[in-house]
């Protein structure tokens, strides 16, 4: 019996609904079945995948049959052929030389930078003075990624660089799901603004590369130092262009996603006062323990103790996963769990929708971090996957969890954040990653 179900609405209706409200479209498709055919062309059929079993086939067991395709083509305009956009053997090669950047001992060292930058951010907040939370979190995570990955201080340029990242993300998001992709060479207003943003980011990157070549010892423990020491198959150093592509990838994928998740976290904490109270109880208990033992724990030791804080981050990532959709294209005919799919078939996998499955999570729309208590998370492997999975799973997932938990705990020790009146409920905006539409103005209230 086929596990492929045709969607009841017409092709045109599906297209218009998806363009208008992709998240609503994907959530509504969830109860229809395991694999939903969108009734597109027979040459390039499109499916929505809702079953964790099928997701595991695509992302893990038979990933060699698939490529990222259209989404990579659009993102490649900005980040080049870096880890996020490269395919197959090139991707495997890049992942091999980048993996040491995220070894445990490196993450322990990065934790100190996370806390230092977050304390600087906290010192700049004024009690009762509203802030654009998205901008602040973007600048904070940008500073962290620049110091931890590139050993570069961005004090004077954070706002400009964050704005450049925002421009590239917005323009890329419009192109990925557009029926017609305008060539990047066409001098439209959007393309020209996008290219200016890329030049802004490249200036910082190439300046950092030049500095690292002048003072290699200073950059030895950073991603940049690792890249300068990396050799290709012929034993030659990789090119500055490849280094640029990996640095651009880390800039965009390594801070914008975390910034968006943090804004959602502050919003959810405001909406869940009982959760925020329990967070403060954990932080207060930690401070008491530190006083009793005669000293503040190191950043990574604190992170290991922050059980409930980590659950808050995990639950935020369940409700509002930055990677709200994962796209794959079959390079050749493939059989998945007895179902045949022709070459050029496209597949949409939505963690945002799948994480809202009431049959798995029970009252899935509710914000309940205790779902992640040890022993309670007996879900299918791909019922919860905010960092993707398989060979293309997020290489920096452990860094991202550490970073988010330490930022939340460090800021929450001093402040609660209250939304400025008149903004209404937060509306998700599905760009390259999932953010709050129009951002969120919030008021820090000192504890």
UniProtKB/TrEMBL annotation:
Gene3D superfamilies for this protein: Cytochrome P450
Required cofactor(s): heme
Heme found in the keyword field: yes
Binding sites annotated in the UniProt record for heme: 394
GO molecular function: heme binding; iron ion binding; monooxygenase activity; oxidoreductase activity, acting on paired donors, with incorporation or reduction of molecular oxygen
Matches recorded under InterPro entries: Cyt_P450, Cyt_P450_CS, Cyt_P450_E_grp-I, Cyt_P450_sf, Cytochrome_P450_Monoox
Oxidoreductase in keyword set: yes
Keywords: Heme, Iron, Metal-binding, Monooxygenase, Oxidoreductase
Family listed: Belongs to the cytochrome P450 family.
Entry protein name: Cytochrome P450
